[in-house]
Amino acid sequence: MSLDITLWFAYIAVEAALIGLLFYRRAWRTLPIFCSYCVWDVLSNIGAFLIDRYHPASYFRAYFAQTIIDSTLLFCVLVELAWSLLRPLRSSLPRWFLLVVAALILIAGAVIWPLAALPGLVHITSKSGLLLTQLEQTVSILRVLFFLLLAGASQLLSISWRDRELQVATGLGVVSIVSLVAAMLHMHQTTASQFQFFAEVVVASYVCSLVYWVVCFSQKEAARREFTPQMQSFLLTVAGAAHSSRVALTESRSEKARKQGKP
Fold first, then answer.
1. Would you say 40 and 65 are in contact if contact means Cβ atoms under 8 Å apart?
2. Long-range contacts at 185-193 (CB < 8 A, ≥ 24 apart)
3. Which residues, other chains included, contact 219 with Cβ-Cβ below 8 Å and sequence gap of 6+?
4. What is the pTM of this model?
5. Is 182:190 a contact under the CB 8 Å cutoff?
6. Domain ranges of the chain
7. Looking at domain 3-218, which of 1.10.1070, 3.30.1360, 1.20.1070, 1.10.1060 is its CATH number?
8. What's the pLDDT tens digit per position in 76-119?
9. d(C-alpha 21, C-alpha 178), whole Å
10. For the segment 134-157, what is each residue's pLDDT rounded down to a tens digit?
């Protein structure tokens, strides 16, 4: 059995175990999108394997759709993690503040997008291939930055490595770092054996992250601690400023509408 097949079966087995643990721990109550992503990931990869084996001509179209859905779900996972981090203070925040969180992550992705165009991408002649590669790199960089931000601000956010949010972000961050390094190294080589080696390293890193999640979710979730007073004050100030801006924008639109309605 080749190393590719061995890694693939290991990936399927470990992720299936993770999904079982997620439902056993009822993680879908607090992290429903992450749970959905894990289910989607294992099913989509099984589907991609079968398509590549029995309908190779349709593989790129399936891969294109899979990448778009995968990137969208990962963006939603980051929004969910950020919103889950605010759990101790959510009762004091307006419901629409979730849209502010999503907008901030989306803006970060928009800033990263042009930076994700690695020099080697110019050798990709297909526009769709270039789009998918740049999209994958953008999401990877976004995940790495999210992980580094959580790890760096863990004390202010009153979280530790026992908190689910940081555990999930760590797994995503490790895989993203490995995939980015592999992508940059791949730009400087052209042989098929080197490409296959980098692909195997990325898959192995994902299997390691899955094993890490299995270990984490096999243990009970740590009780969520309250934010530090400094962080509470900062978040409430941000929410207040966002609310004031929203009210001002609504009043401005209403005033403009009244003026336009005048004869």
1. no
2. 186/120, 187/118, 187/119, 187/120, 187/121, 188/120
3. 162
4. 0.84
5. no
6. 3-218, 228-263
7. 1.20.1070
8. 999 999 999 888 777 777 888 899 899 999 999 999 998 887 65
9. 25
10. 899 999 999 999 999 999 988 888
